[in-house]
């Protein structure tokens, strides 16, 4: 895989990869997903970096003092957003980041990715 590449080229590719991954993370942070559960009683918004940005709770739920129901609704809304936000992050694939760089033997070098093709 690394025949004809010197260490500087390998390090350069690693730096390109790091920069591309940072850029993808920044892009994911700008994208948001939202969920509503319980007929709109609880609404949440999360970004692609899996950060919960907001929770909106219908005042009627609070008035009823149904703590357990409210907790269940919040958990359901957050979990729904987590699924959506994770899908945002998996939209690209490693080839987008690595280009023509052959990843097939990186796992043999101790990297946790790049298994055999």
TrEMBL record:
<dbReference type="InterPro" id="IPR004401">
    <property type="entry name" value="YbaB/EbfC"/>
</dbReference>
<keyword id="KW-0963">Cytoplasm</keyword>
<dbReference type="Pfam" id="PF02575">
    <property type="entry name" value="YbaB_DNA_bd"/>
</dbReference>
<keyword id="KW-0238">DNA-binding</keyword>
<dbReference type="GO" id="GO:0005829">
    <property type="term" value="C:cytosol"/>
</dbReference>
<dbReference type="InterPro" id="IPR036894">
    <property type="entry name" value="YbaB-like_sf"/>
</dbReference>
<dbReference type="GO" id="GO:0003677">
    <property type="term" value="F:DNA binding"/>
</dbReference>
<protein>
    <recommendedName>
        <fullName>Nucleoid-associated protein A2557_05150</fullName>
    </recommendedName>
</protein>
<comment type="subunit">
    <text>Homodimer.</text>
</comment>
<dbReference type="GO" id="GO:0043590">
    <property type="term" value="C:bacterial nucleoid"/>
</dbReference>
<comment type="similarity">
    <text>Belongs to the YbaB/EbfC family.</text>
</comment>
<comment type="function">
    <text>Binds to DNA and alters its conformation. May be involved in regulation of gene expression, nucleoid organization and DNA protection.</text>
</comment>
